[in-house]
Amino acid sequence: MSLLKFGKIIDDRWVHWPDDGPEPELGPVIVSLRRWRDDRDHLLERGCPLGIRLTVDQTPGEISDDLPFFEVVALDFPAFTDGRSYSNAKRLRERYAFKGEVRATGDVLRDQYLNMLRCGFDALEVKDGETEEGWLEAAQAISTPFQPGLDDAPTAMSLRQRRIAAG
Amino acid sequence: MYQYDEFDHSLVAERTEQFRGQVARRLAGDLTEDEFKPLRLMNGLYLQLHAYMLRVAIPYGTFSSAQLRKLAHIANKYDRGYGHFTTRQNIQFNWPKLEDVPDMLAELAEVEMHAIQTSGNCIRNVTADQFAGVIADEVDDSRTWAEIVRQWSTLHPEFTYLPRKFKFAFSASEHDRAAVRFHDIGVIVKRNVEGELGFEIMVGGGLGRTPMMAKTLRRFLPERHLLSYIEAILRVYNLIGRRDNKYKARIKILVHELGIDELSGLVEAEWERIRDSDLKLPEEEIRRIRQHFAPPVYEVLEDDTPEFAAHRFENAAFNRWVGTNVVTHKQTGYAIATISLKPVGGVPGDVTAMEMEAIADLADSFSLGELRATHEQNLVLPHVRQVDLYALWSALEDMGFATPNAGLISDIIACPGMDYCALATARSIPVAQRISQRFADLDRQLDIGELKVKISGCINACGHHHVGHIGLLGVDRKGEEFYQITLGGSAAEDATVGTIIGPAIASEAVVDAFETLIDVYLSERNEGERFLDTYRRVGLAPFKETLYPGKFHVAA
Known about the structure:
Chain A has 167 residues and is an alpha/beta fold. Chain A has a single domain, classed as Aldolase class I (TIM Barrel, Alpha-Beta Barrel). Chain A has helices spanning 33-45, 84-94, 113-118, 132-139, 156-165, and strands at residues 2-5, 8-10, 15-16, 29-32, 50-54, 72-77, 101-106, 123-126. Chain A has an eight-stranded mixed beta sheet with strand order 2-1-8-7-6-5-4-3. The radius of gyration of chain A is 17 Å and the shape is globular. By secondary structure, chain B is α+β, with helices and mostly antiparallel strands. In chain B, strands 16, 17, 18, 19, 20 and 21 form a six-stranded mixed beta sheet that branches. A five-stranded antiparallel beta sheet of chain B has the order 1-2-5-4-13. A five-stranded antiparallel beta sheet of chain B has the order 3-14-15-12-11. In chain B, helix 12 (353-366) runs antiparallel to helix 13 and helix 16 (507-524) packs across helix 18. The mean pLDDT of chain B is 96. The A-B interface holds A 59, 80-84, 86-88, 90-91, 94-95, 109, 111-112, 114-119, 137, 141-149, 155-161, 164 and B 5, 7-8, 10-11, 14-15, 17-18, 21-22, 35, 38-39, 121, 151-162, 227, 235, 238-239, 243, 273-274, 277-279, 282, 284-285, 288.
């Protein structure tokens, strides 16, 4: 997997620790909610940056008290047609004010990229060999959105109101 | 009418180009059909029995003569010369080629139209009372609010992959002409005792295989909170609506399983956190949208002039049409005229390109260029000077569109059925045609009075059979078409889900059975009763006994 972050394909310094796999070498690691609950003390003792991976039916509310321990929250798309992670990303950012990386994992395709950016994702795990060009095009598909989002793009409503205020 | 500004134009143009790219990637094999299908669906493109089908939105049913002319052009250039008006204020083209669709959308964008979210598991075209803005009994023009919701829902990043489709309908009147109680969210614009404008929010209505009436989630929501409140509903639904079974994925099932009180608790908790966010509607924005729906400049005219009265007196056919197809307008001296798309033996909702052009001309001559599409698959000219009704009727009569049957037995809603649809189990259109022919006699139709007949060709209920006064559901029995009959449904303010009367009836016998039901009604009815009233008073028994003689023991 490669990581798409800030529009660039970069090497991912984070390693996923699968529930049924051996412990990775010391370094930034992303673990499941289960491992976090079972092995919390050990994970903290490692002294390495920590990330947590939520399945699509686990909500940010379940980790809200622990968020200060995490630099990354990974939200899954088991299929690109399953939209729950959009709402969870939004809650992470808005309700729990999470400032770290929110990354999309799973069935992550360019046609959903703009939605992800607008819901608060800032990193995507994409297939190796993907080029930045297609993703960049997808991110720029719609220039002025019609509802507030987390990508800071001014909405049509705000631009219209600004124009009225300016006379 | 709502006019696009640069932001609407750029959004629709960009969406068209985005879709053009997606089609190109599909044709080049860079997208699999599984990847492409949700993308094309959310842009209104289905793959049906024989061909692709493109569904174009007519938001809240309001459109212009210029837009209708463009639809005619699309029908001619890219399709087989006709279009089909649906039950959700959309128009469908049945024969487009995939590679032509981006160009069709680009042409539609020229006249401020699109196919955005007319299908897919997202927020669908927002519908409203077809008489909004011109009917006297409304507290407000519901299109202002429908437009605000249309904009908010358009390409909403969070709600593009919901558990299932999601439909909004708006009404601002005690008389429900928009079937709001059978939508995922039905909004009734109302005033509270202090006279402030707001909304009753109903949730969880729907038809399909599990018909349910919406329940009230909030009795009164102040107007500035409309978007934050519905965002809270959608977020809760997106997160906990069922995704394990597509037939249990609509919000109606969530309402049913959780109960309205528990759902209300979740929605209110979500709403508390976002009610004062950027979703709170600025008064200035409400005013700006409202201006788009300001009434046109009407002439100062009188009602019931001697000339109009004379035409009614002298021409019985005209008088009959005024009685059935014309509704009183808010503005003195004006009228609302329904153009029936249900001529005897016709296909409900179908209009040829040539007819579209002729109707567009009539809209220009008689209705300030404006039209409405109704959920009952008819068209409406909303601003006709009463003195012009006779000339309008004469022109419609020449075209075969003056059938005086609005609300009568031959004003049938029918889904496309197995003539077009990949999901259908039986045909709908031929049954509608046969009923319409059987009851072609206009005196007989008038005598029978208001009767809502609704026909679906499968259990998905696009023809709204559950809420027909008489509903027909086509089913397949070992390769033969049978029709299950329901009685007593209503999509109006007295919303009711109909009751199945008995075993399904073979296609060749179904029109006779239908006539039997009408005969029972005529013999049972009291003075002034509609079919529905009689049914509610006498119940199913007399209908059942007569339709299935000797087959059932029915308690007296």
